[in-house]
Amino acid sequence: MPTTEKNQSLTGRVVFQYFYDCGGDIELTKIPRDKLTLIERPKAKGARVLAPKYEEVGLQPLEVNLGPVKINGCEAAVEGRIFPIGVIGIYLSVEFRKDALDDVVKLVGLDERPVKVGGKEIEFEEVPREFFGKLMKTVKPAIVWPYPAFEYPEIYTLILITESEPKLDAKDFMRKFRKQTAGLLRGEKGWKKLSDKEVDDSLKFYLSYSEEDIVVVDWYSALMSGAVDYMDELVRMIELARIQLLELKTYDKLLDQRLERAYDSLRIAFAKPRMGIPWGGRGYGELARAAGELAEWRVEVTDLVEDMRNILKFTGEWYLGKLYRISSERFRIAEWLALVDKKLGQLQELYSMAMERVDVHRATMLEFLVILLILVIIIQGFLYYF
After folding, report:
1. For a surface tag, which of 80, 146, 169, 312 has the fewest beta carbons within 10 Å of its beta carbon?
2. How far apart are CA 355 and CA 295, in angstroms?
3. pLDDT tens column, 290-345
């Protein structure tokens, strides 16, 4: 890996991940599987010390082979993963074999510039978007509880190193070749010019179970070396944290839209005069409808956020749990949860304001009915005596 060792080479693959929100939950049983080329993963035989079993809560995906595609002359294997939570992941995997560091860095940055596909030059993101569009047509009938989908995909890159010559261990990545490792994570061709502070930031979150394996989680990408037998399990943890980030961004956007509509509805309703016959006024109808929508949305979004909080339930798998936690910390999941919680609080305040005004209208209506009843009694008594 160092520039002084010209014979240093790396073997593995780079996986470009694109996660798309589908605008609703997906009932996997409703997907016409005869239209898809499903991938059946063989179950691991025997006990795996480094990756014990864990439980997932409603996030076991349906995996689909979408075929190969040539990008700048490199063949990329394309797979899709359909998650019940309402997310479709498109994975473009490009292998490298006995490549020098600079060649791998160049490959990691493949998605940062226009590429040639089928004789045409297009933006890299158009490739996964096209596969997503085709897969979405098949999945669409299985979408339930629809809502406006989040427009932008959550993008992440995995650098999976299975072999290195001469062999590199965990200490090599974190000590001897720190700057080179940061260059891989950032896809930075000019990695030699990276500052020590930038290198420290890129290598801040990492795990190493043995001296031969390492996982480094950065904001835009993650690097894994060694751990070949249980690498898929490690990838899964980062994948789930990224999906959680996408869904929290989706709920944040939905809350923004809901809050804006709620403010408009309440502004119109509050502009109406307090006096009058409430059941006959347009303002009262708008207010009652706004309060009902607010109550419905408050319950729905709270339930969605709670699902995000409990996205995984680990049963004794401390190492995968640690990887999930450092991934969540790197992706600032806690900050997004706090932001969504804050907007849920605003939604609650608006609901309380709406219900307070509804109560005022109802009290006014009751007062009017009482007065009307008294008048009717007086008039009846007057007519009885005269």
Report:
1. 146
2. 10
3. 667 667 766 776 776 676 666 665 555 678 888 988 999 999 998 988 888 888 78
Q: Is the pLDDT of residue 361 over 80?
A: no
CA distance 164 to 170: 12
Cα–Cα distance between 368 and 283 in angstroms, integer?
Answer: 17
- The 10 Å Cβ neighbour count of residue 70 is 13
Question: Distance between CA atoms of 302 and 24, rounded to whole angstroms?
Answer: 15
Torsion of CA 251, 254, 255, 258, to 10 degrees: -160
Q: What is the CA radius of gyration of the chain?
A: 28
C-alpha dist (Å) from residue 166 to 113, 172, 317: 32, 11, 32
Distance CA 102, CA 100 (A): 6
Residue 279 has pLDDT above 90, yes or no: no
pTM above 0.85, yes or no: no
Torsion of CA 256, 259, 261, 265, to 10 degrees: -170
pLDDT (0 to 100) of residue 49: 47
| Amino acid (1-letter code) at residue 92 | L
- Which residue intervals of the chain are DSSP H helices? 101-108, 126-139, 170-171, 178-186, 196-202, 231-271, 282-309, 318-330, 333-385
Q: Say what the pLDDT of residue 268 is.
A: 64
Q: How much is the pLDDT for 309?
A: 67
Give the mean pLDDT of 211-220.
93
* Residue-level pLDDT at 5: 45
Question: Which has the closest alpha carbon to 5: 107, 102, 106, 109?
Answer: 102
CB-based burial of residue 363 (10 Å sphere; 0-12 exposed, 13-18 middle, 19+ buried)? exposed
Q: What are phi and psi of 65, to 5 degrees?
A: -90, 120
3-state secondary structure of 70: strand
Count other Cβ atoms within 10 Å, centred on residue 66: 20
